[in-house]
């Protein structure tokens, strides 16, 4: 089993930055693709970014491309999301996820991920 714990959320003004972290435990996730998703109240869980096992390939939702950067440190068993130029529409609970199926490609749909953290709240004020 893999446990994922997100941290780094908070309240920030529009145009500001936040850095999210996801600490994995229970098993090494170095061979798992990983991703970040977000969910606003009353809305579905949306893809934000994903990263391949080695970190060589990254994928982003169009809405965050150029503003967010996903990275991972396999030695630390950790995943990160650097968020810059935040907008009020980025307000959501952000979830870290791991895909243990050993896919070579990092997926963009939540159904592909079988381990999830409990989320961290990001609120962007205008």
What would you say this structure looks like, in words?
By secondary structure, the protein is mostly beta strands. The chain has no helices and eleven strands. The strands form two sheets. Strands 2, 4, 5, 6, 9, 10 and 11 form a seven-stranded mixed β-sheet that branches. Strands 1-3-8-7 form a four-stranded antiparallel β-sheet, with no helix packed on it. Strand 7 and strand 8 form a beta hairpin. It starts with a strand and ends with a strand. The model has no long low-confidence stretch (mean pLDDT about 95).
- Gyration radius, to the nearest Å? 13 Å
The overall strand count is 11
How do the helices and strands follow one another from N- to C-terminus? EEEEEEEEEEE
Terminus-to-terminus distance:
40 Å
Count of alpha/pi helices:
0
Please report which band the strand proportion falls in: under 5%, 5-15%, 15-25%, 25-35%, 35-45% or over 45%: over 45%
